[in-house]
Amino acid sequence: MSPPQATGARAALAIGGLLVFLLALPFAADLLDVPATTSLVTRMLIYAIAAASLNLVLGFGGMISFGHAAFYGIGGYAVGILFQHARLSEPLFGMMLGTEQFLIAMPVAIVLGGLAALVIGALALRTTGVQFIMITLAFAQMLYFLFVSLKYYGGDDGLVVRRRNVLFGLDMRDAKTFYFVVLALAAAYFAFIWRIAGSRFGMVLGAIRQNDRRVAAIGIGVYRYKLAAFVLAGMGAGLAGGLWANYARFVSPDMMHWTKSGELMVMVILGGAGTLFGPLFGAAGLITLETVLSAWTERWQFFLGPILILIILFFRGGLSGLVALFSGRNR
Amino acid sequence: MSLLVIEQILNGLQLGVTLFLLAAGLTLIFGIMGIINLAHGSLYMIGAYAGALAASATGSFLLAVPAGLLAAAASGVAVEFIVIRRLYERDHLDQVLATYGLVLFFNETVSILFGRQPLFVAIPALLSGSIEIVPGLAFSVYRLAIIAVGLSLAAGLYVLIQHTRLGMLIRAGATHRETVRALGVNIRLLYTLVFGLGALLAGFAGVMAGPLLSVQVGMGEQILIMTFVVVVVGGVGSIRGALFGAILVGVFDTMMRAFMPHIMRGLLANGSEADALSAGLASMGVYLLMAVVLLVRPQGLFPARG
Amino acid sequence: MKAPLLRIDGLVKRFGGLTATDCLSLDVAEGEVHALIGPNGAGKTTVINQLTGELHPDGGRILLDGTDIVGLPVHARVRMGLARTFQIVQLMGSYTALEHVALAVQANAGHSFRFIGDARADERLTGPAREILSRFGLATRADRPVAALSHGERKQLELAVALAMKPRLLLLDEPMAGLGAAESAQMVELLQSLKGQFALLLVEHDMDAVFSLADRISVLVGGRAIASGSVAEIQADPAVRIAYLGEGDA
């Protein structure tokens, strides 16, 4: 799997088509009288950002992080906590005031996601393989317990964000407006990942995934590049978490629960790890599956589990793999 | 104060041997087959549920033990046969995701069958009550029994691995898969046996934990993640590491939960805030312990030799 | 006399009860080809891995240009000019030959914390990489993924990657292993042409190759250097003949 090269005319056409489709979607949803679709796709896009950020470490870098939801949750809580302090006009850490400004709260969410990833990554990346999986999972669970115990911010019950953040004069309550904000950020994030994948950094990351011994023998310090990727991924998850807090107007420790990390991994694998748009397809696929199954039964995980096992055992390339298979394209 | 410390150390020891039963199975399965099995916690849950149901149906805890063991071992062997077997040649990512699928499936199945309400199991009459182990300190007989049984299982496991033919194969199988195959040993059968043994230990831990905890969906993952901490602290792939890691983590976690509120109340004026914060810090305790171990000895305190 | 480029001084490595490297001392001068030979299990690769930093010695010093490098990680040693090739080729399956060499050029050019800009289209990387590949006769294979290369070509690519790092000392771990007669001859010719550009520590079983390339030979048996000298001296050494050449097929 070489990092994506969107140089071909076909790829450009496909990306353009996808963008047009996503731009037209809310209007089509109105016309077809299914306005709820806009909100559903907003959800998919937010998860797509989170999954794409995980894909950076998992797909491109080959690091099996099972704690990615921690950074997603931190991004969400950043927005939630800043909002709460702004509303109650209570100082945070005795000095900073909260904020309802999107342009302040979101960067804070991104930076905190990155900082958490820096600390956890610096420790976890001292190991590899099965230890790395266990450690990322354990640290994420630690943050989960921490937020459960923070009664001031709702503890177990979570924190309600009464209003979406303020961005210029936009009516963020309007589903369509918010959709376009999310779409713009998602497009920017995917463009960012695309640039990274082909950059010098991306070449190093891809090489580390395939043979870190060789990379060290070339004179490249593997640890710091893995850590950089881990931090960039944490920032992306922080972005997604902050958007989720705005979208759902609610954050809770469940955002960091280990099953959320599992869900993000499933999205990456379902879509095809290490591909540019895999996480988007994976997020759309899993949320569609979830929506369909849960409309039919409350016990949808009863079916999701075996479906997941079947996919792992029999369709390894994920959705992108299937697409490539049918279009006869070799990777 | 010192009596309280002794009591908490014993409580920690009890948690520690429970963790050891899980960590030993996880280590065996990982060491020999190279499989990371997230569903190991599910086997613990299955053991606990089977034990709880048998106890409430028959009124006898003595029957709960074989019921829990049987259910966990049978589920373990079935899981190995249907899913795990196909994962031996796969990478860790596939193993993690497939066994994650198993966790979802088991959790949902159990909650469909038995609901989301926790089950409670009475401590068996024979082991109820407490005895005075040192003057002034009465300690639960049941917890003492768990410690005793857990430690004897650890000893039994040591004998099994170091001094039996099966143990020889297990040790050899971990490092020289091809050699063992060349000896004409049925590797598939060996793997199934080892997986079943791991499931048995997990199931036993589940049955024993039943009367102390509420038996509910999600209990498996809670202990699984703590078991991961044990394995990382003790050193991946080493049974000895699993034992010492489990006891260290068990005692440390119990002490943090017991004494953190005292410490925080001393530091903070606001009592309820101190309690909330200490609860948070206590539940983070073992993870911080793990962080320290990673800083000092990334390979764990008692790594596998060679 | 000038200090040697590499000096190994009293190196010791034990694995449990086995002493794999037993108080080994040897040196490599600037531009010299020093061959390390010995029967299987003599501990040659263990020495290489201690030099590169993949294994940590239990005792002794490794001086590169006078600096003790024992505490340094693998990549830092490489940056000091200590490159290696692997006995079993270590490559990135999906990368092309060109991408391998370009990555080495990139590593040599400084840090890789550059997140934008298409590395594959960067002439500063691909230019030198193509030049090195064509020197190795691999120009036509440049854009093939390494999975599509023959074993001999991959061995050559390992060498090309090492060369792109502009080493001062190159550790070659059995460059002829698994090569056919024609490929071996080609490899010897290639190494012959590189002689003098940098120092070489050559671990090799192919005695013809060793005798035609080496300036000096050290014989390793049981982790200990039993003899060291010129090709002629080693060929004449009775202890070597008994311990090694006698039982070998040379």
Would you mind describing this structure in some detail?
The complex is a heterotrimer of chains A (331), B (306) and C (250). Chain A has a domain at 38-256. In chain A, 72% of the residues lie in helices and 1% in strands. Chain A has 13 helices and two strands; from the N terminus they run αααααβααααβαααα. Chain A has a two-stranded antiparallel ribbon. The termini of chain A are close together. In chain A, 56% of the residues are buried. Residues 1-6 and 327-331 of chain A have low confidence and may be disordered. Helices cover 75% and strands 3% of the residues of chain B. The radius of gyration of chain B is 20 Å and the shape is globular. The mean pLDDT of chain B is 86. Chain C has two domains: 1-81 and 167-250, 3-Layer(aba) Sandwich (Rossmann fold); 95-165, no CATH class. In chain C, strand 4 (59-64) and strand 5 (67-68) form a beta hairpin. The chains are: A mainly alpha (331), B mainly alpha (306), C alpha/beta (250). Chains in contact: A-B, A-C. Chains A and B meet through helix 5, helix 10 and helix 12 of A and helix 4, helix 9 and helix 11 of B.
Largest interface: A-B, 45 and 47 residues
Average pLDDT for all residues of chain A: 88
Rounded average pLDDT of chain C: 88
Total beta strand runs of chain C? 10
Q: What is the CATH architecture annotation of the largest domain in chain C?
A: 3-Layer(aba) Sandwich
Uncertain ranges of chain A: 1-6, 327-331
What name does the CATH topology of the largest domain in chain C carry?
A: Rossmann fold
Identify the strand order in the major beta sheet of chain A. Answer: 1-2
The low-pLDDT segments of chain C are none
Radius of gyration of chain C: 18 Å
Q: Main sheet of chain C, how many strands, which sense, barrel?
A: 6 strands, mixed
Cα distance spanning the termini of chain C: 35 Å
CATH first level of the largest domain in chain C: Alpha Beta
Radius of gyration of chain A: 20 Å
Run of helices and strands of chain C: EEEHEEHEHHHEHEHEEHH
